[in-house]
Amino acid sequence: MNIEKELAKRLINDGESVNRQESYSREINFYELVASGRTASLEDNLKDFGNVQKLGKLSSNELQNVKYHAVILAAMVSRFCIESGMEISVAYTLSDIYIELIDVATSINEVNDLQKDLLRAYCQRMNEQAKSKVVSRHIVMTIDYIRSHIQESLTVESIADSLSLNSSYLSKLFKQEMGITLSRYIRNQKIDVACSMLRHLDESSLSIANYLGFSSQSHFIQVFKKTMGITPEDYRRKNYHQSWMKGENN
After folding, report:
1. pTM of the predicted protein model
2. Among 35, 40, 59, which residue's Cα sits nearest to residue 199?
3. Which of 66, 219, 244, 250 fits a disulfide with 79 by CB distance 3.0 to 4.6 angstroms?
4. What pLDDT, on the 0 to 100 scale, is given for residue 248?
5. Torsion angle (degrees, nearest 10) of CA 189, 140, 175, 171
């Protein structure tokens, strides 16, 4: 097969570019949710997991095609989690276990269930990792709340009110146990998500600002630059589609 000719032919005949872009964006959202340990948000996104997947053709055998995509998912999720701090040996071993299970699966439904279990397994580990240094129940609840409501406009007062806590008490306790202020932690979590979106998606700064609950695009850019030292677009130019691949080349 002449690869270049086949590539040109398929690109010309590809009438599903929009669907593929939407599918890609959904996949990246899954990876981001998992790597950030947002278990509640992940569950919401898993409800229609098998129904919304738009899979490219990697095999003429339908079951084998789904398996190939499941293996890709396992590989990508493991890399996103490594990038977010999961121990490399744990991430790869967990991936190996699920790939072995996928390999012997006998139905598409079984493969889809395994993919959901894989996403939950990684997400739960990332969630627990984020809370591993936390002592008090109130701070655990606070971190869970932030991760589950990262798209909202979060403040110390709104979080404290939602958890039925005194805002001054929560601020003091958070700084004592986490080593940074609650406001800075919220900001850092939002910027972490923004960085992931800039690395892997084509969303504009305005879309990201709206998604993460910033008051305006200019406010998002200001906070991002203060945190990262460069603008969102400069960050994208330097890191777009490169982060997890860099890790493999080291």
Report:
1. 0.62
2. 35
3. 244
4. 42
5. 90
